[in-house]
Amino acid sequence: MGSLCSKQRHFDKPENEENGQAAEIERRIEQETKAEKHIQKLLLLGTGDSGKSTIFKQIKLLFQSGFGEAELKSYTSIVHANVYQTIKILHDGSKELAQNEAESSKYIISSANKDVGERLSEIGGRLNYPQLTKELAEEIGSLWNDPAIQETYSRGNELQVPDCAHYFMENLQRLSDANYLPTKEDVLYARVRTTGVVEIQFSPVGENKKSGEVYRLFDVGGQRNERRKWIHLFEGVTAVIFCAAISEYDQTLFEDEHKNRMMDTKELFEWVLKQPCFEKTSFMLFLNKFDLFEKKVANVPLNVCEWFKDYQPVSSGKQEVEHAYEFVKKKFEELYFQSTSPDRVDRVFKIYRTTALDQKLVKKTFKLVDETLRRRNLFEAGLL
Amino acid sequence: MGLDVGVGGQVLDLETAVKDGILGGGGGIGVGGGSAEKLDLKKMIEELEAVEVPSVFICPISLDPMRDPVTLCTGQTYERSNILKWFSMGHYTCPTTMQELWDDSVTPNATLQQLIHTWFATKYSAMKKRSQDVQGRAIEVLEILKKAKGQSRIEALKELRQLAAAHSTARKSLVDNGGVGSLSSLLGPFTTHAVGSEVIAILVSLDLDYSGKTNLTQPAKISLMVDMLNEGSIETRINCTRLIEMLMEGKDFVSENVSSLSLLVGLLKLVKNERHPNGVIAGLRLLKAICSHESLRASIVSIGAVSQLVELLPGFKADCIELALHILEVLSTVPEGRLALKECAKTIPNMVKLLMKVSESCTQLALAILWAVCKLAPEECGALAVEAGLAAKLLLVIQSCYNPVLKQRSAELLKLCSSNYTATNFISKCKLTTTIQ
């Protein structure tokens, strides 16, 4: 365009200048494209509440500068919101159970806490939550300790009680302190529905302090929205880290209370595996929330989930937990191979047992992921 | 000729001569000396088989070290029993110089005998000491391993691997000192590939007992082996394959332990990789072992093993063909396997080609597979088989095989395939030569 105009007037100098600039810009683009090629892109996928964002936060804590004070402070309102949301869900849940259950009496809140309950439920339904004061914290605490609420909590899987419920309820004193500054752990537990895409760039520091690999991690929201429209934008990522919360086999979706969460995860995993844009992508399956799984397996049999209906327990205690875990792992493995066409069998597929809240575990797990991806690179470069 | 005296014309004693390496046998370390006489020369020669023996100690007839050297009148020295045998065959010449002997006496060469004995004794005690050193070092490294982390752990494992590979004494020493347990404990869900591959390489070279194998047969450890089987270098892949095969030999082995689809897929990849024949054979052997568990057969079929194995057959060597046929035959005992065999276009032609081509057992297996397929769809498959030249082959089997079972089977199969043809039609399809017709 520019050269067209200048044709009529000056020929030499301006044209040279423009060419010079264009060349400079092209050189810059080339440089950056080259640099981009060396950045390994990782995409976190999974259904809602599977722990993707927790992994994201952990990576931030492990390999970046962590959370600064300002950022920590920004989580205060989120933590408080979680508290209000939780107690409301529990309170409303207890009323629902009291109405529908045969043994309704155990879900009826004691008269002392009844009004408090109603008030808190109202607060929890607002768009903006008030500051968590000591008084409010005390009221919430006493309601939490109400036997009816505890009974309701034990049926938490049927309601949408978030996994952070217990943790926050047990820390109300601290959370309501006037000078409360959220700890790293609080941040990890804090639950916010991810909207849009968030990304961080980091370099895992090896033992020799020279890793060289640069990763860019993307976290997208988990709910069932128009996934198919944007998923192809991630073609060319080095690896997909698919998070599946294995403790959710007896829970239903936030968006659809009749749909079992594990079945939803199964469908999503299948769908992702078949996407043409991931033909050559490595798949790292994180079977997450193992700590909750461990506790649940003893009380809730796996076969409440349709996918696991052929499960047979063989023993008890720790051995049984391991056995149950291996069963779930095998189901995912089967699903992987069923959904993978023969020409894609060459892509890397590994399963990791994770508890996203455990920083040490995440660090160890990521070390293995890093090793696998580096080996894969060497292999593809023909050096292995 | 004779014994060279040392530099400067000194007469050296025997031990010094050997010790200083005058005979070119290399500097002998350690004593040897008096106690050597008591050591059995035969035993030492056997144990030092790999060592290069000085040529003057070797009998020209047998090319073995001499235990009872005797010298002829020509001055040439031979092992007594060998030269006497030469004489007994009617020769009266010196084998190396071809001269006719003017004197048939054989003189024992005591000097040479003593020299030989001392040399071997020195070498032997050096070897024993080295062996002890190796054993000692192996135990040392094992201790280091208990505390080492990170890069030093990998270094220790590498050294242990070298020791175990080179010295059977090191291997025994490792097993006797709880090495198997220590190494096993390094394998877990968070073991890096670098560590895991070294550990597996060591374990696969050791003699594992029942408890060692049981210890290794935990799901998390097998999972790790499967991962390395899929990702590692060819050497690591083969090591993992061999180790899993070793673990399967245990009495109480449960089929569930090897039911992982990732394992089966990884093995198929190994088998298809024709650049590494060792991998192909190792993969086939493990697949065969896994096939023996009935509950796993359907899984093997589900990953497409049948068609892949059938298509690989023409490119295989004899030992691989037999293993592959064995696997396919076992898979044909389950309905999924039979179906897969039938649906693979190459099954029938490849099986027909293999009849009477490699060995009797291969023929038996190929026959069994053909039987399974043709039984499933007699008309369709029978026709295909005949088109592929089955009849001529079967007649060949019936005519030339001694095995009555084989002949019977062939006859039955022939009947099954020909049932849709009239006699003349069939014979024309057989493409038989006119003489047989």
From TrEMBL, chain A:
Subunit and interaction comment: G proteins are composed of 3 units; alpha, beta and gamma. The alpha chain contains the guanine nucleotide binding site.
Binding site for GTP: 188-194, 219-223, 288-291, 356
Protein name from the UniProt record: Guanine nucleotide-binding protein alpha subunit
Amino acids binding Mg(2+): 53, 194
GO cellular component, one term: heterotrimeric G-protein complex
SUPFAM superfamilies, per the entry: P-loop containing nucleoside triphosphate hydrolases, Transducin (alpha subunit), insertion domain
Organism: Linum tenue
Gene Ontology BP terms: adenylate cyclase-modulating G protein-coupled receptor signaling pathway; gibberellin mediated signaling pathway
Domain note: The helical domain is required for self-activation.
InterPro entries: Gprotein_alpha_su (IPR001019), GproteinA_insert (IPR011025), P-loop_NTPase (IPR027417), Plant_Gprotein_alpha (IPR002976)
Function: Guanine nucleotide-binding proteins (G proteins) are involved as modulators or transducers in various transmembrane signaling systems.
UniProtKB/TrEMBL annotation, chain B:
Keywords: Transferase, Ubl conjugation pathway
Residue span(s) of domain U-box: 52-126
Statement: the UniProt record of this protein carries the keyword Transferase: yes
Pathway: Protein modification; protein ubiquitination
Enzyme's top EC category: transferase
Catalyzed reactions: S-ubiquitinyl-[E2 ubiquitin-conjugating enzyme]-L-cysteine + [acceptor protein]-L-lysine = [E2 ubiquitin-conjugating enzyme]-L-cysteine + N(6)-ubiquitinyl-[acceptor protein]-L-lysine
PROSITE patterns: U_BOX
Enzyme Commission code(s) on record: 2.3.2.27
SMART domains: Ubox
Keyword check for Transferase: yes
Alphabetized CDD domains for the sequence: RING-Ubox_PUB
GO terms of molecular function: ubiquitin protein ligase activity
GO biological process, one term: protein ubiquitination
PANTHER family tied to this protein: U-BOX DOMAIN-CONTAINING PROTEIN (PTHR22849:SF6), WDSAM1 PROTEIN (PTHR22849)
Job of this protein: Functions as an E3 ubiquitin ligase.
Name the UniProt record assigns to this protein: U-box domain-containing protein
Native organism: Linum tenue
